[in-house]
UniProtKB/TrEMBL annotation:
Record carries keyword Hydrolase: yes
Keywords, sorted A to Z: Hydrolase, Membrane, Transmembrane, Transmembrane helix
Organism: Hibiscus sabdariffa (roselle)
Protein name per Swiss-Prot or TrEMBL: Phospholipase/carboxylesterase/thioesterase domain-containing protein
Record domain Phospholipase/carboxylesterase/thioesterase: where: 47-254
InterPro entries: AB_hydrolase_fold (IPR029058), LYPA1-2/EST-like (IPR050565), PLipase/COase/thioEstase (IPR003140)
């Protein structure tokens, strides 16, 4: 895969973008501790039932991100259901209209704090995410134990989905994402949605979704009255590190509601 990227990124920007934005799991696979098993923890009747929905980046797929769940080995995750959906094939403006797995349209790369927003496209994607959450809540999961996480484009969709959901959720975790709509959307956020805590992690060396795009998140959320914990990672580019995921595990654990 590295050879393909090096041989095409200068002559074929379409392939380059698809590879870079879809590389969520590469770092994890290369640096995953060897003692970890790839099997899921056995269910525990004492652990709270929870649901983690992971939204991938542009050009990626859900199954390619599934190894992420093997890092969450704490007993609190024994009754956790993980979902890694794949985005539909859609034309993407920044890739010259090429069709690829994409939750919504992206107008330009790199994404900056001032990049154009594809709000109508984002809102359609949000409806699909809400349907996934509704299905799990209807199956018996407490909304306070529902966590939506996403990388890059999936991180932007994570933010939009939790802020527009009619109920408070356990949390939303944004990795290398951005705010996908304008401040005028704030008035449409349900009051309960504003109670959902946000974790925002961003690499300071990100050249695909610039660090400034991540930095624009906390002020936007503060304006909306939403609690946000922002974590900057020096030297990290457009990828996810084990350090980020380890913190995510502890962040979710502290917010899980008891099964009693």
């Amino acid at each position: 895969m590295a050879e393909v990227m090096h041989s095409t990124f200068l002559t074929n920007p379409t392939v380059f973008l698809a590879v870079i934005l879809g590389s969520t799991i590469i770092f994890i696979l290369l640096f995953q501790p060897r003692h970890l098993s790839t099997s899921s923890p056995k269910p525990d009747s004492m652990a709270a039932r929870s649901f983690v929905l992971w939204l991938h980046g542009l050009g990626d797929s859900g199954p390619a991100n599934e190894p992420i769940k093997t890092l969450f080995r704490s007993p609190e995750f024994r009754n956790t259901k993980w979902s890694f959906p794949s985005a539909p094939q859609n034309p993407v403006t920044c890739n010259y209209g090429m069709r690829m797995p994409s939750w919504f349209d992206i107008h330009e790369i790199p994404v900056t704090a001032d990049s154009p927003k594809a709000e109508s496209d984002v809102l359609k994607a949000v409806q699909n995410v809400h349907a996934m959450i509704d299905k799990e809540v209807a199956a018996g999961t407490n909304p306070n134990n529902v966590f939506v996480c996403g990388f890059s484009q999936g991180g932007a969709l994570t933010l939009a989905s939790v802020l527009l959901y009619p109920k408070k959720l356990g949390g939303g975790a944004v990795f290398s994402g951005w705010v996908p709509f304008n401040s005028s959307m704030i008035e449409k956020f349900p009051e309960d949605a504003k109670k959902t805590p946000i974790l925002w992690s961003h690499g300071m060396a990100d050249r695909t979704v610039l660090f400034e795009a991540g930095q624009a998140g906390p002020p936007f959320l503060e304006q909306a009255g939403v609690t946000c914990e922002f974590k900057a990672y020096p030297g990290l580019g457009h990828s996810i590190s084990n350090e980020e995921l380890q913190f995510l595990e502890s962040w979710i654990k502290t917010r899980l509601q008891s099964s009693s």
